[in-house]
Structures are given as C-alpha cells and as structure tokens.
Amino acid sequence: MTSFEIEELHFDARSLKTWALLDDRHRNWPVVYTLDGPGEVYVGESLNAAGRFKQHLETGKKRLRRARVVVDPTFNKSVCLDLESYLIRLFAGDGRYEVLNRNDGITDAEYYGREDYQKAFERIFEELRERGAFSRSVREIENTDLFKLSPFKALTPDQAIAVEDILSGLFDDLEKKVSSRLVVQGDPGTGKTVVAIYLIKLLTDIQNADLTDPVGEDSILSEFFVEGYPQLLAGLRIGLVVPQQSLRKSIQNVFRKTPGLKPSMVMTPFEAAQADTRFDLLVVDEAHRLNQRASLASGAVNALFPKINVRLFGADDRGLTQLDWINAVSRHQIYLVDAAQAVRPADVPRQVLEDLTATAKAARRHYPLTTQMRVKAGSDYVGYIRGVLDGAPVEPQAFPGYDLRLFDDLGEMLAVVAEKETEVGLARTVAGYAWPWRSRHDPTAFDITIDECHLRWNSTDVDWVNSPTSTEEVGSIHTIQGYDLNVAAVIIGPDLRFDTATRRIRFDRSNYHDKKGMQNNPSRGITYTDEDVLQFVKNIYAVLLTRGILGTYVYVCDPPLREHLRRYLRP
C-alpha cells in the first residue's frame, strides 16, 4: 500500500531554495508535481524535482504561482509516468484549467503492481480535489467530451506506432517537398478520432516548440522536439475536417480549451473546399462520411457541389466527391476510415474508399488500428456484431464481464437504463430511423410508441449525448456516431425484419423514415434497391450496437428477428 504526501510551495526562487533542502527526496527521488496559475496548469514528473523546478523558472513556466508535489516512498519511474499521464488527462477533462503540457507521447505501459498503484491514484486525485485542483469527480470528468476527445492520451501500442510512423513519413515528405496521402483504418472503438486529434495537437506543439524547455527522455516522441523539425513545420497550415455536425461541434469545444489549438481549425468539407488559401495538411476524421454528389441535406448545400467543382476543377464533373475536394485543396492528407460505417447513399462510395486504401497500402502509408479501446467486451465484439447482422455463419458467443442483454419488454429496458444512468452515467437510448420525426415540428408529439412506452427523438442535433433532455429521448445515428456511451440501449425498429422462410434479415422500406437514407441519385443515374439500403441500415445498427463501453441493451420490434437474435445477444 502506498503512503503518499502532497507538499505545497509558492513557485518562486526563494521558496524553491528552502524547499529543496527540506528533504533529500526533493533532489533525488521520483515524484509527480503540478504547477498552476490563473487558469493554467502543468503536470510533470522528475527524479530531481528541485532541479526541474529551477529549469521551469528559467523558461516559460515562471508565470505559474504554486507547486504541488506528490511524494511517496514506493514510487518509481514507471509509476510516476503513469500518474503524470493520469493527472494530465483528468485536468484536460475537468476543464477548469488550460493544460500547458505538450503532446510528447506516453504509451499505456504495464508495470509491476500497477493495479494497486492506480487505486492510490484515485486517492491522490481526491486529495488534490479537496485542495481545489479539480472541480468534478473522476466519474463526472471521464463522462465528458473534454476527457474523451482530449488530445492528452496515453496511446495504445498500435496507435503509438501509427503516430510515430506518420510523423516520420510526413517529415520526410516535407523535407523532400513531395505530397503525401495516408490512411488510418480501424473498426469502431479503435481510437481513430483520438489519433486525429492527437496528431493535430502534436504537430502544433512541435511547430511552436520552445527547444530550451527539455522533453522527458522517456517520451516516445521526444525525437521530434529537436532542432530541424519545428522549422519544417514553420508556417504550415493544418486543418481537421469532420463531416458530422454533432461530433464536429464537440471537437471544436475541445480545441477551444486546448492551448495551441483553435476551433477554426475544425471544419466541414465545404469550408475546407472554399478556403481562401491552400492547406499544407488536412486530417479527415470519419472520412467514410464524406459525401458524393447526391440530394444532400438542403438545397443550399446541394447547390454548393457544382460551384465548388467548377472552382476547383474548372468543370462540374458529377463523379467528383468531397474526397476529391480534400485532395485538391491540400498538399498532404491523412484519412481516418472505416468503410463499414457508411450509413447513407450520399456517403462516399465504398469502392472509392477501397481504392484509397489500396493506394495507401501500395505506398506503405496504410496504418491499421486493431486495439479495441471502447467496448469492454474485447476485440472480437465488433466483428461478431457485424457478422450477426450480415448473416454470416457466426457461432453464438458470450462476453463475460460485458453487460449484453436482449429485452422482451421495452419498458423494462428503459427502467434499467435509468438505473444505469444513476449508477455510472452516460446511459442513453438510441434507435434506427424507423419512426417519423413528428416532434421536430410539434414538441408535444411523441415519435415512437411501443406498447405503453411513448418516446421522442433527440430534440437537438448538436452534442445530444450531453444535452439536458438526452436521458428522456432517443438518439438517432446522426447524434451518436463517433461518440462513446457507458451503456447503449438500442431499439431495433421495424425497418429490419427476419424472413423465416429464407432465414435472412431483410429491409422493410415502409418502416424506414430517413428520406436521405434511401433516396436515389438521379444526377448520377443511380437507383438504390432494398438490398442496397439494407446494407446502410445494417451499418447503422452495427454502429449503434458498438457504442456501449460497459454494456449494450437491445429491444427488437420484429418478433421473428427478436427470436433470431436471442441466441446471439447474451452476456
């Protein structure tokens, strides 16, 4: 059992000189510390805290006013690196302070006794919270978008390899003055959005690096914070393109509260394509949600397609997509892709994404992410769910420790969801678009009626997960793609049915109410059959069924489909 102390001192030369002599461990022992001033905090670790503080006072940290030092006789270097990462992430998620740390890169490394130490970390957090360092509990912080979408992450091994390789390749290309196109590919929950945000923050940190402020030697990315790399990034214009409105707004909020980042760096494909000057690098998150020429969300948006095509290419070629726009307005591109998450006919065709991926593989610029970071059911869960929906020959599988349940009574499922919201937070109900959105025009109307349950769709399109009424509403695919939930309760509507004669899942067009989700594309001569739309709808449910970190609850409207899925959906 650890026995820590938290020592406090004014962060100035006089106080430091006195403090350094009080205990030998202040000069020769692994410790973790925080430095804070009005609205700012910095977290560090060192074997020589007194010496490190002196360095900070001689560089950009001298404006900070208070130091807190966590001293423990059992600490070693690995523990301190882990605690440092833990506190950085919680400070970023709490939002009380701007976190001044750079994205040097710390992997999520194991070490002896880690489980016991992490229990001690919780006690350290609580004492820091009592002293005013944090404004919220760990659970409250971990449920925020600021935490989930923060660039301050301990990378998984495959994320760390991808980031390091991407940086090395990008710097080589910048030095040779050649263009590049990279693809990061992964299933839901493998951290594609984390990599996108992390890369943007890391590049801006290198771009603005104060090379007199040393980077910890244990940083996996310290090699890029040396002479030469900031110069290669000097003046580079970098942007992050996020097609989905809700996720984009959440990321903009994170960028607003992160030093070195600006909300204006996060944009729509239309904004990127209409920018006044060319980008040096565009990172595209959820690239499978880029659009092709189709009947888009509004007439005004649809009219922009030919206008942008003419502006960029001199003619309106109806075969051009937003992916072509990104390539045209930037010298370097990083695409984060999962083709199986395309949910509308207007999304970039799967063949386009497959060609993009094949080209990246041939150029050795393809980076797969495989570690499941979201669902605590293990890495097999996503493939299992997709296989069940696709009708593949899947053996029924249990996921011990993961709360996977099929309900026969919707009211019972909703009651359990309410209990989970109280217990762990971020428990939400979501559904396929199998009911019309009446409450959009009449807030008193109910959209979904099943037995004695009367429900409404999401009352906001932006950041619905965190909106005040979200626990009483049902979210659609457009509110939840790209987000994590602790518990996802999924209503599979009558848009999916099970044909007992063919033993296949089929699409029921009469019960599908996303007009844009099945609309033909006459401008390109494309007609979408029920089989075509079925794939989009199955993709939607695969996304909904892979949102829950701790559990997934399912209610199925079609009785034959419910019986078919019963053998597959169990703890």
UniProtKB/TrEMBL annotation:
InterPro entries xref list: Helicase_ATP-bd (IPR014001), P-loop_NTPase (IPR027417), SLFN_3-like_DNA/RNA_helicase (IPR018647)
Signal peptide start-end: none
Name recorded for this polypeptide: Helicase ATP-binding domain-containing protein
UniProt lineage: Bacteria, Bacillati, Actinomycetota, Actinomycetes, Kineosporiales
Stored Pfam families: SLFN-g3_helicase (PF09848)
Organism superkingdom: Bacteria
Domain Helicase ATP-binding: 151-335
Gene3D superfamilies linked: P-loop containing nucleotide triphosphate hydrolases
Species of provenance: Kineococcus glutinatus
